């Protein structure tokens, strides 16, 4: 990625979350356990949706994609962060840093668009139930997911192409546990005003457009729900509340990290950690513990495993 870059910096130093050895050991154990929950948890959701015929619907197809993306969201930064807790020299190569920037921006934009698609799915299911399976056909769902990946890829590529060409000739310390895009740009030996404005507008356009579309979708949903029967309204609100919770958990840190103009180091680190670790951790819990069909699918899967063991 750095082929055209005349940078004198071949690697960056990640400052990490803290310097105390005892605190780092504690954090190593905590985040290792969390990561070992995140990956299997999201794999379980994807496996259940793929294997259980009761979950072969547009909503769960999109949920499987969200879980797959969440698994990668955490895997971009968390494994290196865990290893770096045990290292004094927390370096990352220039290309490795650019890869982190690219993948982080890709997954962030992808998940934003995917959440919009999921909101649209709920809008069609609640506001146009008679046409739901016609509108949300498998082909339409695949097309929407491909569109989300395309938007994420174009957004990330537009960012990393600019950053990779910047001259890095002086400081190389990134005050975070990963190559966070705004912090990497600050290390460039050029006037950063126009570049930072471009990055802010680029990220802000994706984030704010997605957020506005989500607000429009859920406003229509809530308006329709208020006019429906109590039973239908209760079921619809139960499903949408899980979606809205995930949206808030994801968009909150993203907006403060990449759109909000003020920067407070400890808060940025906390929000980045929350975004990359706790959001992928909470999503499986929210969608499984609050979803009756997912809980039934887990029971069926458990009973199937027990029957298999008995037969062998």
From TrEMBL:
Keywords: Cell membrane, Disulfide bond, G-protein coupled receptor, Membrane, Olfaction, Receptor, Sensory transduction, Transducer, Transmembrane, Transmembrane helix. The keyword Iron-sulfur does not apply. It is a multi-pass membrane protein. GO terms for molecular function: G protein-coupled receptor activity; olfactory receptor activity. It is found in: Cell membrane. The keyword Membrane applies. One of its GO terms (cellular component) is plasma membrane. The chain crosses the membrane at residues 25-50, 102-120, 141-168, 195-216, 236-260, 272-290. Residues 41-287 form the G-protein coupled receptors family 1 profile domain. Belongs to the G-protein coupled receptor 1 family. This is Olfactory receptor. The lineage of its organism: Eukaryota, Metazoa, Chordata, Craniata, Vertebrata.
């Amino acid at each position: 990625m750095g082929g055209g870059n005349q940078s004198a910096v071949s690697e960056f130093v990640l400052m990490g979350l803290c310097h105390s050895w005892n605190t780092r050991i504690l954090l190593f154990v905590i985040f290792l356990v969390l990561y070992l929950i995140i990956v299997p948890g999201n794999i379980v959701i994807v496996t259940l949706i793929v294997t259980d015929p009761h979950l072969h619907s547009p909503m769960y197809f999109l949920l499987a994609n969200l879980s797959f993306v969440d698994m990668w969201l955490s895997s971009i930064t968390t494994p290196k962060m865990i290893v770096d807790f045990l290292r004094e020299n927390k370096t990352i190569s220039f290309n490795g840093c650019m890869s982190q920037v690219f993948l982080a921006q890709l997954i962030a934009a992808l998940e934003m668009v995917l959440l919009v698609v999921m909101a649209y799915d709920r809008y069609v299911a609640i506001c146009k139930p008679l046409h739901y399976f016609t509108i949300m056909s498998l082909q339409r769902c695949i097309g929407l997911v491909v569109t989300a990946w395309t938007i994420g890829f174009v957004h990330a590529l537009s960012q990393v192409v600019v950053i990779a060409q910047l001259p890095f000739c002086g400081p190389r310390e990134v005050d975070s546990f990963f190559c966070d895009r705004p912090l990497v740009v600050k290390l460039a030996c050029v006037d950063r005003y126009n570049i930072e404005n471009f990055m802010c507008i680029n990220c802000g356009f994706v984030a704010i457009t997605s957020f506005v579309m989500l607000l429009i979708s859920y406003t229509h949903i809530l308006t329709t729900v208020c006019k429906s029967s109590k039973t239908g309204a209760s079921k619809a609100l139960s499903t949408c509340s899980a979606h809205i919770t995930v949206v808030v958990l994801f968009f909150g840190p993203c907006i403060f990290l990449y759109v909000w103009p003020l920067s407070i180091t400890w808060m940025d680190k906390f929000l980045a950690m929350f975004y990359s670790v706790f959001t992928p951790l909470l999503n499986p819990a929210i969608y499984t513990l609050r979803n009756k069909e997912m809980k039934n699918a887990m029971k069926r899967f458990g009973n199937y495993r027990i029957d298999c063991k008995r037969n062998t």
